[in-house]
Amino acid sequence: MEFSIKNGNPEKQRLGCVVVGVFNYRKLSAAAEAIDEVSEGYLSGLLRRGDMDGKLGSTLLLHHVPNTLCDRVLLVGCGKERDFHEREYRQAVSASIKALNNTGTSDAASFLAELTVKRRELSWCVEQLVEIAAEESYRFSHPDCKKEESVPSLKKLVVNVPQRNHLAIGEAALKKAQAIANGVRWARELGNLPGNICTPTYLAEQAHELAKHYELKIEVLERADMEVLGMGSLLSVAKGSRQPPKFIVLQHSKGKSTQKPVVLIGKGITFDAGGISIKPAAEMDEMKFDMCGAASVLGTMKAVAELQLAINLVVIVPTCENLPDGDANKPGDVVTSMSGQTIEVLNTDAEGRLILCDAMTYAERFEPEVVVDIATLTGACVIALGHHASGLFSNNDSLARALVNAGEESSDRAWHMPMWEDYQEQLKSNFADMANIGGRAGGSITAACFLSRYAKKYDWAHLDIAGTAWKSGKEKGATGRPVPLLTHFLLQQASKKA
Ligand code: BES
Ligand code: MN
Ligand code: ZN
């Protein structure tokens, strides 16, 4: 979709549709007021007769409104004006895009970004509008899976800002939003692909294309390279599969050469059947999404590269399948990680931490400023937080705060979870330095505790995205989260360094 920023009058738009807000109860926004005036009370008349009362998320499509130059006017219910917070704004915007995509119009001008949202500024409104519009207009399609059927009609969206001197703010927000939207879109695309297409080899090919397009440095380690490095933990997961594992390393170096890099590590299990500790059949298909951490760090790299952010960023993707096989990990097997620490694999389905720990040790060579890993790590995290927030764990409170803030800023929230030493005890093993599971109690916390043992040399945070990376049910599909959070975090890092 194409976006542009303009400052104009709602009644003078020569476009397929103009989108304006209406508050509950029957209160016109400034843009709606302007249309009402030129049309000699057409809108207020409709409201008075009860066609629309401004209920949040409702829409009313009007044709040939007198004295306007556009084909249609879309009224969007925004709820009570004094309760108009970010959630309500997002809901109204989302409803407006859904409605536009049903009208058949290919272009529109939205005046929703000029509405006053409690505690949020214009740049936030513009960014959200663009990201939501892009999100609502995405459809999965692939020649070998599902051919494009009903493509959304909307192709061009003009985002109106209230004053001429707001144009620069709008443009800057638009640029940021488009980079994020493109990163999200790619992350969704990779996430949605089935396991027989999106293999570790496929992810490596995609990473190569990204590197070529943005002139990034790339290295992909093969099984033999990983053997030399002693990545016994990662390789123990990979050996139950016919698909060769890959270890992808991408580098964007636009910061000062003396500046230590941020390292992002994404879990890239392209299918997680559980291994010998096999998962139940119901919903096992959703374990194709077990590479959404990988997709999110690749999507973030795309956004960062597109924005040419002045930072040094390293993205690492350890990727393989987790399947049952005669050669697969068995419960009770003991493996040696790259760090030298040994692990008793009590449950082969706790494989994410087994591949991440070796990537975390590998990350040491970059002498990172911070390391953040992103993983669909535990079902327990979904029980704890549901589908609204990602679980956040860290060995550094100010890093955790920065990530929470980035999540708030981008409406891609994370919630700081505890990781006290007391939990470490649950990982004791009689046969190795640690077990790979810590029992049912606090499952997302003990998973983070396991990872923390590989983060002794740097500041580190872990995002458990098991509940946020994809949706189940009728709207099944990858969300692209937490690309917005990560990109905002990196934008903030870049401005700190500037
Ligand atoms: N990829 C799963 C986590 C997962 C499960 C995410 C369901 C979203 C929905 C992970 O590899 C896994 O299987 N974790 C186990 C850990 C357990 C064996 C300690 C889990 O959560 O059940
Ligand atoms: Mn698993
Ligand atoms: Zn998994």
Write the layout of secondary structure elements.
Elements: E1 2-6, E2 17-24, E3 27-28, H1 30-38, H2 42-48, E4 59-63, E5 72-80, H3 86-103, E6 107-110, H4 122-136, E7 156-160, H5 167-192, H6 200-214, E8 217-221, H7 223-229, H8 232-238, E9 246-253, E10 262-266, E11 268-272, H9 292-307, E12 312-322, E13 333-336, E14 342-345, H10 352-363, E15 370-375, H11 379-385, E16 390-394, H12 397-409, E17 414-416, E18 434-435, H13 443-452, E19 459-464, E20 470-471, E21 477-478, H14 483-497
Parallel strand pairs: 1-7, 2-5, 2-6, 6-7, 10-12, 10-15, 11-12, 14-18, 15-19, 16-17
Antiparallel strand pairs: 2-3, 4-5, 8-9, 9-12, 13-14, 16-19, 20-21
The structure holds ligand BES, manganese (II) ion and zinc ion.
Overview of this structure, please?
There is one protein chain. The protein has 498 residues and is of the alpha/beta class. It has helices spanning 30-38, 42-48, 86-103, 122-136, 167-192, 200-214, 223-229, 232-238, 292-307, 352-363, 379-385, 397-409, 443-452, 483-497; strands spanning 2-6, 17-24, 27-28, 59-63, 72-80, 107-110, 156-160, 217-221, 246-253, 262-266, 268-272, 312-322, 333-336, 342-345, 370-375, 390-394, 414-416, 434-435, 459-464, 470-471, 477-478. The chain has 2 domains: 2-163, 3-Layer(aba) Sandwich (Leucine Aminopeptidase, subunit E, domain 1); 182-497, Aminopeptidase (3-Layer(aba) Sandwich), CATH 3.40.630. Helix 9 (292-307) crosses helix 14 (483-497) and helix 10 packs parallel to helix 13. The mean pLDDT is 98.
